[in-house]
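Morning. Coffee machine broken again, so started the prediction first thing and wrote up yesterday's gels while waiting. Chain of 234 residues, entered below exactly as on the submission form.
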Amino acid sequence: MKKSMFISILILLFLISGCETQESSSQSIEEKMIDKVKILAVNDIKFKHLDITYSDYKSNIEGILVDWFPDLDDEVIFSSYDENGQLKEFKGIDLKGLSIDDLKAHKEKLKKDMQYNMTSFISNENVENTLKISDVYDPNVNDFRYVFTQRITKFHDEKNTVDYVNKRYTLQKIDNEWKIINIEKSMTWYYDGLTVNGKDGEKAITLEELIKMPKYTSYNNEEIEYIIELDPLE
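Came back before lunch.
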């Protein structure tokens, strides 16, 4: 009786395991592409905010990019003044080996010196971050696909400043696996009273007008449709 019950338990465990495997493999190719873009985009933002270490960043994005595509190693993450008053740039590779406590110390120094890097928005005070991710777009070129993202950063200041960063991720099928081979971006700013040419007396443009101007807000003359919206720093 005990032997029969033991065998029944083993069969049940096998069936449960099989169901889990089938469920995980049921993710579509398009969903996997979107997931790769999401992982890379979120980790890029967190690393630029000094919220994750270099080793965690590298580990989290492993296998997503092609080997020859540059990541954040050579990109300036932030700038800070040293003890001699000299401005020093810190690239991604310069943060290798630093602990999360080291990064927090850098963050506190930046806040103290008021040297906020406006590219990475290291200071999150009074700032609202949103990341939108599109569905997969097919350019009708063999083994290429596009996924678009839009990052919106709202500064709750007197001028209602908003920053938009639109990106187009190109994925290619390499050795039967989809990988990101290129990232193109377009950036723009908005604040109350902004004009196109910056001339006195010129009519200010609206936020609705501005967000249609940068690249990667439309595809084939149709507005990009975003299917995911999240706070990348949560």
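The longest helix spans residues 2-25. Going to sketch it on the whiteboard this afternoon.
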